[in-house]
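FAQ: What does the model actually see?

It sees only this:
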Amino acid sequence: MGSGSLAMEGGDWSAEMPKDLERPNVKQGSWAVLIPGIVGGALVAVYAIATPFLTPALRKLCLPFVPATPKQVENVVKMLQRRSGSLVDIGSGDGRIVIAAAKEGFTAVGYELNPWLVWYARYRAWREGVHGSAKFYISDLWKVTFSQYSNVVIFGVPQMMLQLEKKLEEELENGTRVIACRFPFPHWTPDHVTGQGIDTVWAYDMSASRDLRPPKAASPDSH
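And it is asked to produce this:
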């Protein structure tokens, strides 16, 4: 019969307890205090590590970390077929796009403001055996010049796409391929689109995007 049954039955049963149960169990009491402490400390540690992955990094426009789905990565790689040269992932997160590109033979670079994600991406690149061609840097995307890259990948949000469109127009060379994931650029016309829903990927050729951009409206003073 278990101790729970004894407690439910009531009565003065403590006098019949064995002698070894009458002495305080110091070891058991220590574990009763230690185990909650270990569990609590572990939860605090997990929270401290996970928070930077789940909350937005401090950017000019908040860009939360949302991992790319396997299908998104597949679609990006598809858009890079028959391409070569250097590649940059703007807001590279945990590095999965950069690592996938490095496996395809690209010299790939990721810029990310969140240091936890950058360190984790470097570890993943080392684990995948591509740390020689996949590099990650802690930097604000608005403070980086992307003119040296021939392939650009961006997982953006609608609030930033117009401003980023202008920045890339000023910096990128003709012939550069820009791949937008989840949200397209507001004025550019893609030359290829693949995927559905959140896995949709838009590919733009910079020379064509500049030519197809709608002309600016004339100001009243020009008449």
